[in-house]
Amino acid sequence: MATSGISPQGEKIARIIGEVIEPLGFITSAIVYGSSLYAENSADVDVAVMVRSDHGVVEANDYENLLRTRTALNVAVARDVDLVPHTSDEIDDLTSPLWYPRYNPSLCAGIPLKGGFRVESSSLRDVSFGFQDIARYIMYDNRTVCRRQLLRSLEGEEGRVFVSKLIHGPGAALTYLACRQRVEYLAQPSDAETSFLVFDITYGTYSAGVLGFLRRHQRGIDFTAGLKLIRWYESLVRLVLHPDGDEHTAQYKETCRSLYE
Asked: What is the 3-state secondary structure of 74-137?
């Protein structure tokens, strides 16, 4: 894709951001994209970063590092930097947000900052999708939205939306499973209690305490609680979308227990 039209200010911002990100080991690659590359007076800057992970589960201290990095970038470029974390499980999965036509064109036209951020044009792919793929995308997209929000703000309505998306996680997983197996829906995602119960029966896990944790934070949540919850949801996505025998089940159970400690 041609990238003509990028303004001198956009190139300068990209260079500064690249200098901040380059030495950070927990970020394996990064790209700046969006309107800030073309509009001189853009108030915000979009930066996608690929973060090291275990099949999509990011270490807690790396989220803390990302939070500090975003603060440093805001100061460095005097803009609101929208730092969007991604993980390697998305790269080759055509149902991930990296390939979504709303997001993909901007990424393809972006300026790589580090590590050759792997992104290809979805317009060149000849593929067809079913409802299971749409359900799979929803799980990925909710993860991306909540990762991004964790680094921005969890105050007020933003925190309520963060918790609301996560509380529907088991229901979304069961919807994906039903679409993949072409069976009747196993639970209604809006019925969180039933969804958690059926999810645990289906996957041999125990998540009841997680639902209680989520409900306690529906009216207010901070970064510490949000960090625990995003890592729980990442573990859920890994269990459902990237099954690996008993290992990911055991890791999911351990993540659930960590919310009670």
From this structure: HHHHCCEEEEEEECHHHCCCCCCHHHCCCCHHHHHCCEEEECCCCCCCHHHCCCCCCHHHHHHH
d(CA 58, CA 228): 11
CA-to-CA distance for 112 and 124, rounded, in angstroms? 20
**Beta strands 111-114 and 80-86: pairing type?**
unpaired
- Give the DSSP letter of residue 220: -
pLDDT in tens, 106-143: 999 999 999 888 889 999 998 889 999 999 999 999 99
The model scores a pTM over 0.90: yes
| Class (C level, CATH) for 1-126 | alpha beta
- Element (H or E) spanning 26, and its range? none
Q: Write the pLDDT tens digit of every residue in 53-99.
A: 999 999 999 999 999 999 999 999 999 999 999 999 999 999 999 99
Identify the CA nearest to 109 among candidates 45, 50, 33.
Answer: 33
Q: Where are the domains of the chain?
A: 1-126, 128-261
**Cα separations (Å) of 261 from 148, 150, 209, 232, 257?**
25, 21, 11, 14, 7
